[in-house]
Design a protein that fits this description.
The protein contains 13 helices and 12 strands. The chain has a 6-stranded parallel sheet, sandwiched between helices. A 4-stranded parallel sheet has the order 7-6-8-9, with helices on both faces. The termini are far apart. The protein folds into 3 domains: 51 residues, 434 Repressor (Amino-terminal Domain) (Orthogonal Bundle); 121 residues, 3-Layer(aba) Sandwich (Rossmann fold); 143 residues, Rossmann fold (3-Layer(aba) Sandwich). By secondary structure, the protein is an alpha/beta fold. It comes from Bifidobacterium myosotis. Keywords: DNA-binding, Transcription, Transcription regulation. This is LacI family transcriptional regulator.
Length: 350
């Protein structure tokens, strides 16, 4: 500590009273996170208590902050479960806070976590769309891992599910069980998940020299799935498979198909995505779908954060495979020899 630097100097620079500066430096709960950060920043800038603060910086609190924009816990809770498995093995614990998708609240939560000494942050999204990176001044130098929604900064560490791989596998599976007239029902076109799953599907169509009979975009809803399935059968009576980009869409599609006399999977096979129990395992028939492996994403995010704390940071985007869960909605049909040899395939034209 400089002999010329006093607590009053810190208070003056932070524009607070000496008493408030003292409370902030001692992490008093009654001081707002913003005030604490302002005082800490002033103290660091002036070199106040620098020796002690440097010594403390070498120690870890064992706490990890997990900030999520997922307001209903669908993504955050399994990710937290995975993170805690990894963190628990290293004597760390996670503190979960929800930003409800509001940047100002996210920043406020990070302020609070930072001044209370968390070792790092895991930022969890729920859309798969890329997001702006956190401001380094906000994170105060803490290592940050982005999960599910990647950072737009390629130098950051982001962990996502492999939606492209899922789309590719879905079409390959349908072709392998003998389906040839395949449509894709997607959600909104501005969602990265929809773009990536469609991209993967198109890659497989091209690889096998096929083309989809239709690719339709609209909403992540059962209503859209039902309406789209009915429209597809009306326009393409020979339709025999639908790849739906969410379980909500898939369950709606099944309902739409059954309402017009189509059997699932005998007439039309249906695949979903998300493996959300309320829509997939609790449907009739149960849905073949892809699991986003959120728990594994949580484990990986926690391990990468521990690596960063150990001086081995990761950079770029890491994709976690989405395993396929085969259920009743794609049970393969038994073809007769005549069906197998006499069928006319709809192939991609040049």
């Amino acid at each position: 500590m400089s002999s010329k630097t006093t607590l009053a100097d810190v208070a003056r620079l932070a524009n607070v009273s000496v008493a408030t500066a003292s409370k902030a430096l001692n992490h008093t709960d009654r001081i707002s996170a913003r005030t604490q950060r302002a005082v800490l920043k002033a103290a660091e800038q002036l070199g106040y208590d620098k020796a002690n603060r440097t010594e403390r910086s070498r120690e870890h609190s064992g706490l990890i902050g997990l900030i999520t924009s997922d307001y209903n816990g669908r993504f955050a809770l399994p990710l937290l479960t995975g993170a805690e498995i990894t963190l628990g093995a290293s004597n760390h614990a996670a503190l979960l806070m929800s930003s409800h998708g509001r940047p100002a609240l996210e920043k406020s939560h990070i302020d609070r976590l930072a001044v209370h000494g968390v070792d790092g942050l895991i930022v969890v999204g729920d859309t798969t769309n890329s997001r702006p990176p956190l401001d380094p001044q906000t994170t105060m130098g803490l290592p940050v891992i982005y999960a599910y929604d990647p950072s737009r900064d390629p130098n950051d560490c982001s962990i996502i599910c492999d939606n492209i791989g899922a789309g590719a596998q879905a079409i390959e599976y349908l072709l392998n069980i003998g389906r040839r007239y395949i449509a894709v029902i997607a959600g909104p076109e501005d969602f990265q998940a929809a773009k990536d799953r469609v991209l993967g599907a198109q890659r497989t169509f091209i690889l096998y020299d096929f083309q989809p009979i239709a690719i339709l975009f609209d909403a992540w809803s059962e209503e859209w799935g039902e309406r789209a399935a009915q429209l597809l059968v009306e326009q393409h009576p020979h339709l025999d498979a639908i790849y739906c980009l969410s379980d909500e869409i898939a369950r709606g599609a099944v309902r739409g198909l059954r309402s017009i006399g189509k059997r699932v999977p005998q007439d039309v096979a249906v695949i979903g995505h998300d493996n959300w129990f309320i829509f997939a395992a609790n449907a009739h028939p149960t849905l073949t779908t892809f699991d986003n492996n959120i728990t594994i994403i949580g484990k990986t995010a926690a391990q990468f954060l521990l690596d960063a704390l150990a001086g081995r940071p990761h950079h770029g985007v890491t994709s976690i495979e989405c395993p396929m869960i085969v259920r009743e909605s794609t049970e393969p049909r038994r073809h007769t020899a005549l069906e197998s040899t006499g069928r006319v395939y709809e192939r991609k034209t040049s």
